[in-house]
Amino acid sequence: MRKFERHFPKQAKNIDDCKQLDEETKAKFFKEIEGITSATDTASEKQTVKDKANEYFHNNQFTGQQLTLKKSERLGRLQSWNGFINHIEPLLPPRNKDIFDKDKLESIKRKVKHGDLSAAEEIFNLVEEALKPYLIPKRPLTLGKIPKPPLTLGEIPIPPLTWCFRADTPAPFEGIHLDSLPCRLGLKYLDIQKYLPIEITPPLNIVAKIPTAFDAGLFVHWRPGGKTCHRDGCECQQKDGLDEVVIMDGLTYDHAKPPKI
After folding, report:
1. Most buried one in 39, 138, 183, 254, CB count within 10 A?
2. Residue 194 to residue 100: CA distance in whole angstroms
């Protein structure tokens, strides 16, 4: 048995079954992992394999088939709260980390729990208001020049390798059972309150691709084929897969809006 397969059997099968990767590319990855010196204990070896695989995946992302997006096509995304906040916090002065009205935020998140998409607009407004006093642009200032106005949420880049889903309707969240969407997308957490539902309208000429097993990396719930795969054992109301899209860069929160139906 191959070394990677011994420690990560589901992910090894994903690589084997991924038609977006050619056989030479797959063989190169497995050969790279086989070259790792075996450790004396299984746990140490697994960690070494994990570290090496993650490095390889990171360096070989975004190689799937390019997709043609329709003009002004709207893509759906569930953005994790932790990822969203952790991305914004480094832009803020250290003493101003706790910028959100926690009670109001929890109230809005409960609306999301009950499938109320209008809550996403409230969240965007809340974040915009909270950031205004603190988002000072990290741009070098030249003497005699007027500094640019404070950075807005729309100027903040969305982290690279953004995963989205496509729908058959112009509005990606139309007809979607929001509370079971994390299960349908195969996400790590099943509680919808852990996510911010957003629509992304990519700019013209942006490159979008079908994800590969290298994009998914060690994530255990992903399956190849270009469609989302629901989590095993969870009872979501809609289990059919949605088309998956990955975008490497070129997106900012100016391209992300609250869902509209």
Report:
1. 183
2. 16
Whole-structure pTM value:
0.86
pLDDT digits (tens, 9 = 90+) for 199-247: 999 999 999 999 999 999 999 999 999 999 988 877 777 778 999 999 9
* Distance of alpha carbon 169 from alpha carbon 74, whole angstroms: 9
What tokens were used for 170?
A: 């112009």
| 48 close to 36: Cβ distance less than 8 angstroms | yes
Question: For helices 42-59 and 23-34, what crossing angle results, to 10°?
Answer: 140
State the pairing for strand pair 195-200/256-257. antiparallel
Checking if the pLDDT of 6 tops 90, the result is: yes
Distance between CA atoms of residues 89 and 99, nearest Å: 10
| Distances in whole angstroms, Cα of residue 164 to Cα of each of 73, 160, 199, 243, 246 | 12, 12, 9, 8, 6
Annotated domain spans of the chain: 3-59, 66-257
- Would you give the DSSP letter of residue 166? E
Sequence-distant (6+) residues with CB within 8 A of 13 are 5
Q: What are phi and psi of 183, to 5 degrees?
A: -65, -45
Q: How many residues does the chain have?
A: 261
The span from the CA of 182 to the CA of 104, in Å, is: 23
